[in-house]
């Protein structure tokens, strides 16, 4: 679809905003502009994502140098309201566009949460890099996000062309990771992006691919894992949004619906013609990613499976999955800091829920367990990592408060119990 079709929609949206500022709601001029905007959106046929990053405006993955007059006033109003992201679904109708524009005209600062339009902030955490670097990274990320969204929508509708596109997208992601860590930046920075389903899928894909590369798996396996990671939560489509975004503890009945998403995802993927030849790992990972290395998770199988029955890709992706979930703001809790998320990964690794070696490699990849990091040990003492053993990063050499150097890889040594916050954190 040509870029001009998207431009026509933005012009029409700008016109709706102008009309509504001139005329009262419900007047012929406003209704007509809304109808035109809706028609242009239907012609575009895809979601529209607008992002404001400082002085930069990004539509989809395109940075707009000179915002056309026809929608400049609308974009300026959105920025003045402090909104950093706007996502409009492809099937947003005229009444939904009108309802949202109404909030912009009345200078409503609260994020808008409609069923087809969502606005919000990106909650950028750190701005250490020059803005241009971050803009470039976010622009690249948003391009992949739009692709991921389309691929996952195709797969949700059981279209086999989604498999071909999924492979193309993950190959591009893995190729980008091979030349630098730019894709890591938005994952670190954007803690409250509007669409958790797709950002989570993309983040887990990027983090799992990076972990698979760090483990020196073959290029083919890295791509296969990346694709499985992208599709790991496809079964959440079957869980009502109110349950996924529920604020507070869930009743057991509702929790059961969440626990069904791995089997729903596997079934959905198996229904796609050609999935097994395209990537046999897709249904396996969708089914196993919450089972846990010790099989304490879900779905429960009738009898405990023999050890090593879970595919290693499921265990690898589970580490990235847990980490990304902890690092993202959810309706029911704040995003955890890197140190807190790392602490949970370590405890889960030590308890057997997560695969120890994958957690180790992941924390090394994120540079969390480097020399200089302060830690609390399981015997209550505090210390600082002075050196990590190659291959055993979870059991480093730690200098304690009495000046002793303790080798945590020695038998009956304490373990790391907590990773302490560090103001110089640069974990990803
Ligand atoms: Fe999941
Ligand atoms: Fe997940």
Task: Give a verbal description of the structure.
- α8 runs antiparallel to α9, α8 (196-214) crosses α15 (312-327) and α16 runs antiparallel to α17 (356-365).
- This protein is globular.
- The chain has 17 helices and ten strands.
- The mean pLDDT is 87.
- The chain has helices at residues 3-22, 28-44, 69-80, 94-105, 131-156, 161-179, 184-189, 196-214, 219-230, 241-244, 252-259, 261-270, 275-278, 281-288, 312-327, 338-351, 356-365; strands spanning 48-53, 56-59, 62-63, 85-88, 117-120, 374-377, 382-389, 392-400, 405-407, 416-419.
- With 428 residues, the chain is α+β, with helices and mostly antiparallel strands.
- The protein is 51% helix and 11% strand.
- The strands form two sheets. Strands 3-2-1-4-5 form a five-stranded antiparallel beta sheet, with helices on both faces. It has a five-stranded antiparallel beta sheet with strand order 9-8-7-6-10.
- One fe (ii) ion is lined by residues 233, 261, 289-290.
- One fe (ii) ion binds at residues 200, 204, 232-233, 321.
User: What is the H-and-E element order?
Assistant: HHEEEHEHEHHHHHHHHHHHHHEEEEE
Largest sheet: 5 strands, antiparallel
- Strand percent estimate: 5-15%
Question: Number of helical runs?
Answer: 17
How do the strands of the widest beta sheet line up side by side?
A: 3-2-1-4-5
Q: For the terminal residues, how far apart are their CA atoms?
A: 35 Å
Radius of gyration: 23 Å
What is the share of helical residues?
40-55%
Structural class by SSE content: alpha+beta
Heterogens: fe (ii) ion
Average pLDDT confidence is 87
Which consecutive residue ranges, at least 5 long each, have pLDDT under 50? Answer: none
Q: How many DSSP E strands?
A: 10
Morphology: globular
């Amino acid at each position: 679809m040509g870029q001009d079709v998207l431009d026509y929609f933005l012009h029409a949206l700008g016109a709706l905003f102008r009309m509504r500022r001139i005329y009262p709601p419900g007047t012929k001029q406003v209704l007509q502009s809304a109808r035109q905007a809706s028609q242009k959106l239907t012609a575009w046929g895809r979601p529209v994502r607008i992002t404001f990053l400082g002085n930069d405006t990004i539509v989809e993955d395109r940075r707009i140098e000179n915002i056309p007059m026809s929608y400049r006033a609308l974009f300026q109003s959105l920025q003045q309201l402090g909104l950093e992201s706007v996502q409009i679904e492809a099937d947003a109708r005229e009444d939904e566009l009108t309802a949202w524009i109404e909030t912009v005209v009345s200078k409503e600062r609260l994020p808008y949460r409609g069923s087809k339009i969502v606005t919000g902030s990106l909650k950028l955490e750190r701005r250490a890099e020059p803005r241009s670097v971050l803009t470039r990274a976010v622009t690249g990320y948003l391009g992949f996000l739009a692709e991921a969204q389309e691929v996952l929508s195709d797969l949700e509708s059981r279209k086999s062309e989604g498999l071909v596109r999924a492979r193309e997208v993950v190959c591009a992601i893995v190729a980008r990771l091979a030349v630098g860590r730019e894709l890591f930046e938005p994952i670190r920075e954007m803690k409250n992006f509007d669409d958790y389903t797709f950002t989570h899928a993309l983040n887990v894909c990027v983090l799992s691919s990076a972990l698979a590369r760090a483990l020196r798996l073959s290029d083919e396996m890295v791509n296969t894992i990346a694709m499985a990671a992208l599709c790991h939560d496809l079964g959440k489509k079957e869980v009502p949004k109110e349950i996924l975004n529920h604020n507070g503890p869930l009743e057991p009945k509702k929790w059961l619906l969440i626990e069904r998403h791995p089997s729903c995802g596997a079934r959905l993927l198996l229904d796609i013609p050609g999935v097994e030849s395209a990537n046999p790992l897709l249904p396996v990972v969708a089914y196993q990613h919450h089972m846990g290395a010790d099989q304490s998770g879900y779905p429960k199988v009738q009898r405990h499976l023999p050890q090593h029955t879970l595919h290693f890709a499921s265990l690898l992706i589970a580490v990235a999955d847990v980490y990304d979930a902890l690092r993202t703001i959810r309706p029911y809790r704040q995003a955890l800091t890197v140190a807190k998320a790392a602490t949970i990964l370590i405890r889960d690794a030590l308890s057997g829920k997560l695969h120890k070696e994958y957690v180790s490699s992941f924390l090394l990849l994120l540079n969390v367990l480097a020399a200089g990091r302060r830690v609390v040990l399981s015997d209550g003492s505090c210390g600082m990592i002075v050196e990590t053993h190659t291959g055993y990063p979870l059991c480093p050499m730690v200098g304690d408060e009495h000046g002793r150097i303790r080798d945590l890889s020695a038998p009956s040594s304490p373990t790391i119990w907590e990773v302490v916050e560090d103001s110089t954190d640069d974990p990803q």
